[in-house]
Amino acid sequence: MPEGDTVWQTAKRLHTALAGKVLHRSDLRVPKYATADLTGRTVLDVTPRGKHLLTRIEGGLTLHSHLRMDGSWKVYRNAERWTGGPAHQIRAILGTLDRTAVGYRLPVLELLRTADEHRAVGHLGPDLLGPDWDPDLALANLRSDPARPLGEALLDQRNLAGIGNVYKSELCFLLRVTPWLPVGALPQDRAALLPALAQKLLEANRDRPVRNTTGLRPHDLFVYGRAPRPCLRCTTPIRAGDQGDGSRERPTYWCPTCQQGPAPAPGTPRATRPRPRRRTPD
Question: Residue 191's CB: how many other CB atoms inside 10 A?
Answer without folding.
Answer: 18
